Amino acid sequence: MYLTDLSDGDLAVVEKTPDGEAGEKLLANGICEGTEIEKISGSPLGNIVTISAGGKFYAVTNDIAEKLAVRAK
After folding, report:
1. Mean pLDDT, range 9-22, rounded to an integer
2. Which of 3, 8, 15, 64 lies at a 20 to 30 A Cα distance from 43?
3. To the nearest whole percent, how much of the chain has pLDDT over 90?
4. In terms of DSSP bridges, do strands 56-61 and 48-53 run parallel, antiparallel, or are they unpaired?
């Protein structure tokens, strides 16, 4: 399952981050395997997903969200 598969308000745990630069950007923000996240919302145009992790909010592009493997809680 990927971040884009979650509904708004769903809680999940990151299982695998994308390889390359996308994964490095997530890691730099503290989002790595085992991180608990909440999908806040997708954008109306479908190009941004907003998540919450560790009390902070992040905007993730849909390209990255489609590769961010998660396990629903």
Report:
1. 96
2. 15
3. 92
4. antiparallel
Six token digits for residue 3: 């971040």
What does the alpha-carbon distance between residue 11 and residue 5 come to, in Å, rounded to a whole number?
12
Percentage of the chain modeled with pLDDT above 70: 100
Token duo for residue 50: 């907003």
Q: Which DSSP symbol is given to 21?
A: H
Both tokens of 29, joined, read 């923000």
Is 67 within 8 Å of 1 (Cβ atoms)? no
The model's pLDDT over 26-58, given as tens digits with 9 standing for 90+, comes to 999 999 999 999 999 987 777 899 999 999 999
Q: 34-46 burial, b if ≥16 CB within 10 A, otherwise e? A: ebebbbeebeeee
Beta bridge partners, 58, equal 51
